[in-house]
């Protein structure tokens, strides 16, 4: 059984991950309404990534017979002044999640719970990547606030998943269909 303090904090984090899911979803819907399909698709995907994080945490607790609290979720922000707004908001959110993950690591360490610490380590790495990705996107969005197509092109070029090579014809050496 993981340490009690760790279980309590991880349950809080499950709520945070679901809140992050809702915020990414709200951003995706906003971009969808602006007919920015690249950005919308990217944010819809990021939402499912956050849900995946919550599910991993639920499984970690359930597998060890620790209590899981299925949380109520905080309402996301849905009104934005410009295309930069949702991006700034999720960058802030990812920075906050980084602090929350660091707290989980600190608790696991203080409790001498090595399994818990190993579990959290994967999220630490994820957070580094998430902050870099959103920070880069914020830079692009700020300099292209009045040129949404430039932001769309950036997502197409830099953030289209490589496991879907049909979106990047020829880049993996294959002949496009
Ligand atoms: Fe997450």
TrEMBL record:
Coiled coil: none
Keywords per UniProt: Iron, Iron storage, Metal-binding, Oxidoreductase
Listed GO MF terms: ferric iron binding; ferrous iron binding; ferroxidase activity
Residue numbers spanned by region Disordered: 158-177
Annotated binding of Fe cation, by residue: 17, 53, 94, 127
Sequence ranges of Basic and acidic residues compositional bias: 159-171
GO cellular component: cytosol
One Pfam family named in its UniProt record: Ferritin
Protein name: Ferritin
Lineage of the species this protein comes from: Bacteria, Bacillati, Actinomycetota, Actinomycetes, Propionibacteriales
């Amino acid at each position: 059984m993981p340490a009690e303090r760790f279980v309590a904090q991880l349950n809080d984090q499950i709520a945070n991950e679901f809140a992050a899911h809702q915020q990414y979803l709200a951003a995706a819907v906003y971009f969808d309404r602006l007919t920015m399909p690249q950005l919308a698709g990217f944010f819809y995907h990021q939402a499912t990534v956050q849900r995946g994080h919550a599910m991993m945490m639920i499984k970690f607790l359930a597998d060890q017979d620790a209590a899981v609290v299925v949380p109520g979720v905080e309402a996301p922000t849905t009104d934005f002044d410009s295309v930069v707004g949702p991006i700034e908001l999720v960058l802030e959110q990812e920075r906050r999640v980084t602090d929350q993950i660091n707290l989980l690591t600190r608790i696991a360490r203080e409790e001498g719970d090595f399994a818990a610490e190993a579990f959290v380590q994967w999220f630490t790495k994820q957070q580094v990547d998430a902050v870099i990705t959103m920070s880069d996107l914020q830079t692009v969005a700020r300099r292209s606030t009045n040129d949404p197509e430039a932001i769309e092109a950036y997502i197409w070029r830099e953030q289209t998943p490589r496991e879907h090579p049909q979106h990047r014809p020829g880049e993996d050496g294959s002949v496009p269909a």
